[in-house]
Amino acid sequence: MNRPTLPFDLAVPIIQAPMAGVSTPALAAAVSNAGGLGSIGIGASTVTNARQMIEETRALTVRPFNVNVFCHEPARRDPARERAWLDHLTPFFNELGTPAPTSLSEIYTSFLVDDEAFEMLLAERPPIVSFHFGIPSPDRLAAFRKAGIKTMATATNPREAERIEKAGIDVIIAQGIEAGGHRGTFNPSEVDEEWSTSVLVRSLARQTKLPIVATGGIMDGRGIKAALELGASGAQLGTAFISCPESAANASYRRALKSARAATTRLTSVVSGRPARSMVNRFIVYAETAGSPAPAAYPLAYDAAKQLNAAAMKHDDDGFAAQWAGQGAPLARELAAAELLTTLAREMT
Amino acid sequence: MNRPTLPFDLAVPIIQAPMAGVSTPALAAAVSNAGGLGSIGIGASTVTNARQMIEETRALTVRPFNVNVFCHEPARRDPARERAWLDHLTPFFNELGTPAPTSLSEIYTSFLVDDEAFEMLLAERPPIVSFHFGIPSPDRLAAFRKAGIKTMATATNPREAERIEKAGIDVIIAQGIEAGGHRGTFNPSEVDEEWSTSVLVRSLARQTKLPIVATGGIMDGRGIKAALELGASGAQLGTAFISCPESAANASYRRALKSARAATTRLTSVVSGRPARSMVNRFIVYAETAGSPAPAAYPLAYDAAKQLNAAAMKHDDDGFAAQWAGQGAPLARELAAAELLTTLAREMT
User: Fold this and answer.
1) Cα–Cα dist A219/A211, whole Å
2) Residue A331: which of B203, B225, B226 has the nearest Cβ?
């Protein structure tokens, strides 16, 4: 194979996926302490909260950990499209007895235009920073390199992998169509070939000398070994970690993962405005009905979905929750993070 | 793993996929002689031709080989839908200067209702018969068992696998979303979870004690090893064999597989009426345009597509050809079948 090892000091080449809103400093630290690479996602956090999460993680582990940011193109505003989307969702706002918003907000600032987050990361210097939805500018990457920060970025196809390699990023996260949560596609308006993790990893292994991390549909040690066989240098697991007690997943999300619903996931743009794989719920079914308007751009659509979810959760109704999950969700186990890590490592032998 | 081995006498657990219209007795025999399991597909053949193909294969090898039949529910006729589909395609018939048909024919008889094909198979007694799109009746399966014929059937999800196991079939072909050609879905009107080969194999390995053959996106020995790691007892490769000199693929199909087009496949129902993965061509792009009517049922839609292709090929235009290919098509190699088999076996070590 002659594939490189990951340029991090890990006992096992297993990365816990960042999963903004689900991962926590406790989860990341537990994974890192157990010999894997824990991650926190700060793409949905304020800079103040992000700094705090990094410091909390550092307080819990001396091992390497990873901080993930969102590098999407900032939303192109389109009042007519946003209005149509809000109109489409108004029956739900009415049903939940909460006023429909009159406009949508860009609830996340892209790292591409977030100088404050960049300066914070440079100052905090986490061992590893990873990028989703795109890659930062050459000068920011140069600054990270100079600061000794290793970098990783998600590719969903060979073209994105090529851009990542040319940018001088250290590791390619090869995300297959099976993956839960947001697909890392750079430009969601391009046709998506929807390659599986296996096909993508096998292809990238021939294309690049960079280390590749397989992600999407991997739930156990056998899955990790299979990915290594295909040429990956490591595997990133997200859904497998949601049920850990250290995660921030709420009770209804955990229940859903243990239920028959886990077998029914769908890649949809209606929750956030970008394709993401979620367990199917009432909101998705309605919002995707034939004849529905196009969702507002990311993350504008997410603003609406989050407001609906907040209103519904007051009545313990999780029919509007973003319950991301990969295709492998039925294989998820409920273990503490350290135990899951050692189980995965044992299954790899 | 404690997974069973395939109940056939093979040197390597590699099956060449049936691929009606592409596989030939020469291809199947070359694969079987090289220690794998060669297959012919007779779902699109008359009983006379099918018998001849079986006899030709038997004349070329003393090793086990596999004969595949289509077990789809016969088309439910719907004159309005068929008329709308023909109207949709009429501009192409006009352009190609060939009269649009006034009605569509069921060009393939389902094995479920084909007594003559059943009797022929019982009389010819090929070592293995495999089923796609469904499974035959219990009495036919009992007759095959009594005749010493081993059986395999395609599953695209856990429910189909359960039905296959309950029917007493010997091997489950676990077909992931990456696979080229027709998806084996029993009932295409059900929601398709579109599981990748990896997720499906890993799940079925926990569900059943039957041997599982992984198929979809597997192009080389590393891919086969990865599938075995996940719990498969063997792997079935289709796209990897199309370019073999022994296949019936025409020159334009072979050229397309070597071109950049190989990287752009799509699962579409517009060619045949059932979901199948194909390299994208002009016909597919047009026939899938937003607002297009639903394709006529399988195999009625295929009647129209085949007529268009026949007319276009007179002008060396392959824009209407059914050029099936899996997601792994860019990794295809051009080797004689025996050499491909030995290469795959070597890559597995």
Assistant:
1) 20
2) B203
Is the CB of A175 inside 8 Å of chain B's CB atoms?
no
| Rounded Cα–Cα distance for residues A153 and A69 (Å) | 10
CA distance A11 to chain B (A): 21
As to burial, measured by CB atoms within 10 angstroms (0-12 exposed, 13-18 middle, 19+ buried), residue B342 is middle
Measure CA of the first residue to CA of the last residue in chain A; give whole Å: 18
B198 close to A (CB below 8 A) = yes
Q: Contacts of residue B199 in chain A, CB cutoff 8 Å? A: 178, 217, 327-328
The burial of B133, by beta-carbon neighbours within 10 Å (0-12 exposed, 13-18 middle, 19 or more buried), is given as buried
Which of B229, B327, B330 is opposite residue A229, by nearest beta carbon? B229
CA dist A340 and A347 (Å) reads 10
Q: Is B246 on the interface with A (CB under 8 A)?
A: no
Question: Hey, is the C-beta of B195 within 8 angstroms of any chain A C-beta?
Answer: yes
Query: Which backbone phi and psi does B263 adopt, to 5 degrees?
Result: -80, -5
Q: Which helix (H) or strand (E) holds A151?
A: strand A150-155
ipTM of the complex: 0.96
Q: Is B327 on the interface with A (CB under 8 A)?
A: yes
Alpha helices in chain A (DSSP H): 25-33, 47-60, 79-95, 115-124, 138-146, 158-166, 197-207, 221-229, 239-242, 251-258, 282-287, 300-313, 337-347
Nearest to A202 among B216, B229, B328 (CB): B328
C-alpha Rg value of chain A to the nearest Å: 19
User: Left, alpha or beta for A38 (phi > 0: left; psi -120 to 50: alpha)?
Assistant: beta
> Is residue B207 a contact partner of residue B162, using CB atoms and an 8 Å limit?
yes
What single-letter amino acid sits at A164?
A: I
Contacts of A1 in chain B (CB under 8 A): 222
Cβ pair A196:B197 closer than 8 A: yes
CB B298 within 8 A of CB B78: no
> Does B223 contact chain A (CB < 8 Å)?
yes
Quick check: B202 and A222 CB within 8 A?
yes
Global pTM value:
0.97
- H-helix or E-strand spanning residue B346: helix B337-347
Q: Is the peptide bond before B299 cis (omega within 30 degrees of 0)?
A: yes
Of B203, B217, B231, Cβ closest to residue A196 = B217
Per-residue pLDDT of chain A (349 residues; tens, 9 = 90+): 578 999 999 999 999 999 999 999 999 999 999 999 999 999 999 999 999 999 999 999 999 999 999 999 999 999 999 999 999 999 999 999 999 999 999 999 999 999 999 999 999 999 999 999 999 999 999 999 999 999 999 999 999 999 999 999 999 999 999 999 999 999 999 999 999 999 999 999 999 999 999 999 999 999 999 999 999 999 999 999 999 999 999 999 999 999 999 999 999 999 999 999 999 999 999 999 989 999 999 999 999 999 999 999 999 999 999 999 999 999 999 999 999 999 999 999 9
Q: Name which of A1, A194, A198 is nearest B197 (Cβ-Cβ).
A: A198
